[in-house]
Give the backbone structure.
Amino acid sequence: MSPNNVPEILRSKGISAETVEALSSFKNEPGWLTEKRLEAWDFFEKIPMPTLRDEAWRYTDISDVRVEELAPYAPSPDATSEKDLPEAVQTLIKEGEENSALLVQHNSETALVRVAEELSRKGVVFTDLHTALKEHEGLIKEKLFGLVPMDYDKFAALNAAVNSGGSFLYVPRGVEVDVPIQSYYWLDVVGSIMPRTLVVLDEGASVTYIDEYASAYHEEPALSNGAVELYVGQGAHLRYVSLQNWERNVLHFNTIRSSTGKDATINSLVVSLGSQLSRTNVEAGLVAEGSDSEMLGMYFADSDQLLDHHTLQDHISSNAHSDLLYKGALRDESLAVFSGLIRVEPGAQKTDAYQTNRNLILGTDEAMAVSLPNLEIMADDVKCSHGSTTGQVDDVELFYLMSRGIPRKEAEKLVVFGFFGEVTSRVPFKGLKHKLDRAIEGKIGLGFEERVA
């Protein structure tokens, strides 16, 4: 969509019911979706903004966030090939994981989509949600808002009302995609980006899907507000990665929810490195026997960053397994919050669930980690455990490394890499592991160099 055709109401600051209607009209959407958007806007206006009095938000102060005052839509220049994309995006693509399909969203619209011919021949569909709505309306109507409903919370309501761009991935029955599929979300204007990811795997399908978020820096605040819905059919296998590395002017809110069918598996990895404030909800619904969820998380907070993660392992059916491991490093005056819940519903016997959160404090600064693991068990034949640890870099480990001629700065880096290694060792892709290693090294380099100096 050409930026020259964007109505003025979408470019202006402020969101209203008129804005929602204008966006739906601009995209030429069917009437049922316009009604859904307006219904979501009604929820947004009725749901109060979370405060520190709300249990789920008592460590995350968003009292000065005025999301409805931001521009709801950020136009993007037209692009016909990767050469037309911003240089920073081209660099991201070159440094990223090898992929069999690629989608680039530049601000509020999709700038580029390419899919390997082999995938198309197998019936794999990968495109932006706007295009998918035209070509696969029945499936979109059935699945959209099914896992992240518009009344989930205030930010989910806002996304449902004014989402734009986003991606849709469908993998047919029995199709195995060996090379990852990837989306890049790039923001380089002041405003908001509200993508929505919808992934549907049929029975026996298999794929790896990577969402990556990055931006150019601006002085004024920007907003990222996303929603991710992951449907994993019977016997299917989905590996989903979310890599958030926004610049510091961005406020990031995202809800990732999955539904895993009989004998299906989902492996999720959520990485939070950027933004000034980030709140991510990650929820796995184990809805059928034999379903399996591995939930991995990495976060590294510095300066005065606030990185907040809330997770749910929701055991709805019997004989299901889940394993969660979230690890975070902190320094300076940053704050990291982890709140995790294993919930075993009545009748979900033979549940096997584990939850672990570990935090590493670097130096002697004012950084703080809040860890709140919880169990809610309503069945009597289960195996569930949770654990949490928070501590500083071990001086004994540093001394051991330094006694073998390793400078203190390098020794500290080795300790941090070893700390995160429990997570990164489970990542099966070299390109992604290399990118994570570089990002972690960039995070720890500046702080340690300051201390050494």
